[in-house]
Structure formats: structure tokens, C-alpha cells
Amino acid sequence: MGHRRARSGSHLIATTAFVAVIALAALAVLAYSAVTVSSNAVQGEAKREVAASAQASAVAVNDELGGLSELVQSYARRPQLVAEVGDGRSGSIARAGLHADLDELRRTRSNIALAFVSNDAGVLLDILPETPSILGKDFSYRDWYRGVTATNAPYVSSVYRTAATGHPLVVAAAAPIFAPGTSSRVGILVVAYRLDTLQDYVDHFSGAQGVSITVTDQTGVEVATPGSSVRTTSSLRRDPQIAAALRGRSVVSVRHASTGATIAASVPIHPLGWTLLAEVPRRSVLGRVNGLRKTVTLVAILLALIVGAGVLLMLRAVRRQARADRELRESRDELRAGEERLALARDAAEHANQAKSEFLSRMSHELRTPLNAILGFSQLLEHDALDDDQRESVALIRRAGRHLLELINEVLDISRIEAGRLSVSIEPVNLADVVTEAIELVRPIAADRGIEVPARAPEGCDRFVRADRHRLRQILVNLLANAVKYNRDHGRVDIGCEEADGRVRVSITDTGGGISAENQTRLFRPFERLGADETDIEGTGLGLAVTSRLIDALGGTIGVDSEVGTGSTFWIELPNDEAPIAALNREPGRAEIPITDGAARTVLYVEDNPANIMLVRRLLDRRPHITLRTAKLGAEGIAAATDSPPDLVLLDLNLPDLSGELVLQRLRADPRTRAIPVIVVSADATPTQIERLRALGAADYVTKPFDIGALLAAIDRAASTYDGALVP
Ligand code: ADP
Description:
Layout: H1 2-76, H2 79-85, H3 95-108, E1 112-119, E2 124-128, H4 143-151, E3 155-156, E4 160-161, E5 169-178, E6 185-194, H5 195-209, E7 212-216, E8 222-224, H6 240-246, E9 251-257, E10 260-269, E11 274-281, H7 282-382, H8 388-418, E12 427-430, H9 431-448, E13 464-467, H10 469-485, E14 493-500, E15 503-510, H11 517-520, H12 543-553, E16 557-563, E17 567-577, H13 580-586, E18 601-606, H14 610-619, E19 626-631, H15 634-643, E20 648-652, H16 660-669, E21 678-682, H17 687-696, E22 700-703, H18 708-721
Parallel strand pairs: 18-19, 18-20, 20-21, 21-22
Antiparallel strand pairs: 1-2, 1-6, 3-5, 4-5, 5-6, 7-8, 7-11, 9-10, 10-11, 12-13, 13-17, 14-15, 15-17, 16-17
Helix pairs in contact: 1-5, 1-7, 2-3, 7-8, 8-12, 9-10, 10-12, 15-16
The structure holds adenosine-5'-diphosphate.
The site of adenosine-5'-diphosphate has 20 residues, from helix 10 and helix 12.
């Protein structure tokens, strides 16, 4: 899940980045095309404007020179001038009149440099201003001459440097002079037009229009160029735009020069055959779109910033999400690691505990074996012929040995309880039986010191409590033994039983020295002897510690009331319980349990609790063909089963000497008893326990407190299937 989320996070990042790139690209394309389209529109507009201004300039130039040409033509047609030229030979010229006409013509315009007349062969007849050195010379090589003679019409020449005074660059406007009434030429009237004046004219014109204007003649030679006057006769024929105009075509283009790109329009100037090129720098044209370009760029940048900010925010959110995911994953991992560590620690602790318990049981076994030898041989020694000193020594050895044995048993008990390995079998226990048994056990030591103990359990004890019979007896023996041990000689011990609020209290009162209030608080601590270790009274300081833990395990309570100098009362409380027989009597449908008959059978019941024995005995009243035998100890049961094999064994697991499990194993191991079915009866009904006992060979498992029907059914089942013939 965490991985999927992380993957979807990076997927989101990739998608966001992709969308952002697309958006930015679209924006760039939009901005670029907006600027380009508007630039193109402006440039197209500029081209049209430049073309128009070229056209207008061309008309103006044509007007200027065409006007000149017409002026010359009108003079050439003047009868007076025609008469003055005569037939063009020097003898027929009326020089004075011609001179006056030329002068008049020259004065009509300030930009006329020369006015002159040649005859039809190109020989100069007259010129103003006067230049006698060239009069009579042949100028038939001049363009104006060739132009007029070729077309027999007025002609404007290409640029040339005149031979007249000052040698300025000029173009000539020439017109034929015809003999009166004919079309036969007698001469040619020419005016030379100074190019610098044309230049001024063009400069003036282009300045007004904001364009640079270049004019060429019909050979492509510059006649006017922006900014400076023409000094050379270099040809611009190579310029493709001028070449196109020379061929009569108008061309508009964008030209790239070292000073920057220009928008240029070239047009032919009809009918001169000249060309005109108008140019504006493209930068100045596009200046008009600069505002738009700036606005578009600004908007595009703003949009890009917004998109970028959006993407950044998104990325940050995604990254935060990813970090949160990672942290979640990490803490989950940590948790899991912690759980694993905990499990390991628990396993280790359990292992250690098990090892400790195992060690303790091994140790106690190992210690008990040599102790048995010590105790046994010292007992034997006592019967030998010993002197008094030796006898005393042997008695000391025995006492020390017994003490050690007690110590080992009690340490083992405590460690078992603390390791949680104490197995208790909680069932209804007849208190009077157990109290009486405990009294029997302490009676000898009481008698030794003349201490009076009750003969048996008092009447109040005749009731049932919920307890483990074996452990309850251990508790009572401990308390009674202390009441005797810490009593004064010839003192007495009293026992009382009473019931209150569903609990039964057993009190054991002695007439000993009593226990101070301060000592009472330390009473139940292990190895706490409260000064008794300085007396002759034997003890380990473990008895009450074991007792209080046992009573805890039984769900009971323990306490003491004592007065120094008077004596002490130790008491325990246990939950009240109902007698099993009473339960049997109350069992619904008990009357319906039929009395059945069958082949004679023997059942051996190994059980230390008389109440349970009585119950089963009553139950088997309903099965007259079954004979019940009982054994109170495990060893006793094994012996009974081996000596005279029964048809069925009912086995209690919680026996005073051997564990029921061990008894079962022994019965399975012995060929004489191997085939006898064994029904285990126990208060411990955990599935693992049942499983284990079945694996060991138990035929059935009945839990306490008994379900009468189930118990009887199990007995019937096992008793009917067992075939005694299996026993060898
Ligand atoms: P042990 O008897 O082996 O010393 P216990 O745990 O049974 O150990 O008792 C702890 C101590 O409590 C005893 O050493 C003794 O001093 C004191 N004690 C126990 N029972 C009595 C009693 N009935 N009267 C006076 N003192 C007692």
C-alpha cells in the first residue's frame, strides 16, 4: 500500500511536469506566433508603404527630368531657333540669336549646368557658358547623341562627366531640331543637368518621406544616393533589385546589409529607363510592433510564472504527501521491528525461565540423590555401637541432611510457583478430611513437646471448598507445624472453621510467643526467620513464603492476628464449594440414568480426593456389573493395576506422589498393563494438555467437575470395547 502510494506520488510528479511543459510550450508558441503574425503584418504594411513611396519618388524624379526634357523639346521646336541653326553647317548659323536663345534656356532653371547645340553629326555649334576650346568638336560619341539619333526623339542620357568648365557629373536632356516642315534633323539641342541638384531634390524628397532613395540611370549608374552627392560613375547593375527595375519590374524585398536589415522597393522610372530604390530600416518599422511584443512577452512571462508557481505548489504537496507516506511506513516498520524485538525478548525470557526451571529440577534431583545416601547411612550408623560423641555427631548429620532436604523442596516449590509451572487441580475438597490429615502429620512433633492438638477437624470444618487438595494439605501442614514449632512446651493449638459470604476461613491458633506488629509485615518474605535462626528451632525461613504463594495460586487469602506474649492466629480463606454428591443429586435427569447390566467388569480409580471417589462410587451404583477399586497414590495405582489388571483405569492427573502423566507412561510401558484403556480425569482441560495425553495413549479425557452423563458414557464405552483377552 505504501509502495503503491509512493509510486502514484512519482506518477503524479511526472504528470504534473508533463502538463506544465505542455502548457509552457503552448504559451511560448502562442506568444511567438502573436508576435510573428503582428510583425509580419506590420512588415507587409511597411512593404506596401515603401513601395508606394518609391512609386511617388519615381514620379517626382520623372517629373523633374521629364519636365526638363519637355522644356528642351519646346525650345528645339521654336522656329526662331530652327532658323538660327539653319542647316547645321557653321556658315548658316545665326550665332548671335542662337546664343541669346541658349542663354534664355539656361536661365529657366538654376540646375541647368550647360545648354548647347550640335549639328546632326554631333559637332558642337554653340555652348553656354561659353567654352571656346570645345567649339567645333565632335561629340557624336556621347550617349545623348546616340539616344537622339537612334530614336529621332527627345532623350535623357546616362550619367557622364561633361567636358565643359568644372567637369561636373551631369545627365543630358537632348531633343532633335528638325528643318522646318520636315522630319530631317539639322541639329540637337541639349541641356546638361547637374546631378548634385538632383541629389538635393531627392534628399529633400526622401527626408520628407522618412525613406532613403537611390536613383540610377538607364545603365545602372548611381545618379542620386542618400546622404552624399554622387562623385563616381559606379554601376549598381549587379544589385538584383536594381537589375530587375532596369528590366522594368518593380520589386519589394527585405535586404540585409552591414548596417542592418532594410525593407526596400525598387521601381523603374518610365520613360527615362532609370530606376529608383526606396529603403527604410526594418528596425524602425518593427519599432511599431515593439509595444505589442513587449505586452505579449510580459503576459507570457506572467502566465509562465503562474504555471510554474502552480507546478511548484503541486510538487511541494506531492513531496509532502510522499514524506508523510514514508514516515508512516517507517513508523509502521519500527512498530513491527519493536513487536519482533518484543517477541524475541519474550521468547528469550520464556526460554530462560524454562532453562531455570529445568536447572532447578535437575539440581534438586541431583542434590536429593546424595542426600538420600547421607540420610540413609546416618540412620544405619545410629544402630551401630557408637559412643555418645559419635552418636551426637551422627544425629547432627541427620538433622543437617533433613534441613537441606526441606530447603531443597521449598526452593523448588517457590521457583515452580514463580515460573508459573505450579500445576493445580481446582475441585471441591472436603475441608475436614484435609485438616484431619494435616493434624495427623504434625501430631508426633507436638506430642514430643507435650503440646495439645485437636484429635480431628472440628465440626465447623465439615464442608467443601474450591481448592487443590494436595496443595491445601501442604498449606495446613505448614501452618500447623509453625504453630507447634513456635509454641511453648505444653502449650496448645486450636483449629476453627467458619463460613461467611461464600468463603470459608480456617484459623490455627497457638499459645506461643506471638509476633510483633513490625515483624508481621516481614513474615511472608523468603528466608525471613525473624530471629528464630538464633534459637534451636529448625527452619529455613521459606515455609510462609511458599504458603502465601500457594494460597494465591488457589485464589485464597492468608493473614495473621498476633499478640506478643499471648500467641498467634494464622488464618486462610478459600471459596466455598458444593459437595460433588450434592451436584450429582441435583443433576437433571439423574433418575433417568438407567441401571444397565453386562459382563462383569473391574474399574480401578486412581484418585487422592475421597469426595471424588465417593461420587464415582455412587455413580457406579447404576452399573451393578462393575466393581470399583481405588488407589490414593500413583505408585499404589500402578501396583494395583499390575498385580490384578482391571478392565479400565480412571486416572486423576494430580496425585500426591507421582504425576498422573507418569503413571500413564508406566502403565503403557508395562506389557501386563499396556492394553488396559485409561480414562484421564483432570481439572486441567487445555487442548494442548488433552492432545498430549491422547498421544501418550489415554483412551479418553473427562474434565472435572464431572459431567455425570459424559463420565458414565466414557466408562461404558471403554468398558465395552476392552477385551481382557489382550492381556498376555
Ligand atoms: P521457618 O519456620 O522455616 O523459619 P517460616 O516461613 O515458616 O519459616 O516462618 C518464618 C518466621 O516466622 C519464623 O522463623 C518465625 O520466626 C515466625 N513464625 C512463623 N510462625 C509463627 C508462629 N506461629 N508464632 C510465632 N512466630 C512464627
